[in-house]
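Async update (no meeting this week)

Hi team, since we skipped the sync, here's where things stand on the single-chain job. The sequence we agreed to prioritize is pasted below, unchanged from the tracker. I ran it this morning and attached the output directly underneath so nobody has to dig for it. Comments welcome in thread, and please keep replies under the output.
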Amino acid sequence: MKTILLLLTMLSLVPATLRAEESLADKLRRAAEKAAEKAGVALDKVETKGRQWWNDAKESVKMKRPDYEKRAGDALDTYAAEIKVLKESASGVAGRDYFKTRLLALEQHLAFAQDEFETIRATPSEAEFRARQRKFDRTMWALDGALGQALEEAGE
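Output:
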């Protein structure tokens, strides 16, 4: 009698165990699908940014020097204004030490870009100007990315 009772108890627990395993498998499958979906979205963003970067690079190399200098100067002014607004922001993240460090890094990055820009403007030859322009463009793209991340984090 004990054996039959034990056997019936075990048989009654088997479906519950199978359902638990199925739900775990379902959870894992859904998590994998969600991760794959997010990875796909991230890949699309990277691909779009990469194409945008390439198009911007081609466009800036084709620009005449005065036009390029004006566009770069305007971009530096815009970045300086956005950093100033971030420093004066009243958002919750603005008071945190790590965010203050990020703002300090942005200011230093901007100062470096401004120094590079002045060097480019003082360059006499066109060949040297174009070589320095490529380096300056990379600096500006990095600054743009860092500023975008800070703005997103601050919710602005």
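Quick observations from my side:
The chain has four helices and no strands.
The chain has a mean pLDDT of 80.
Reply here if anything looks off.
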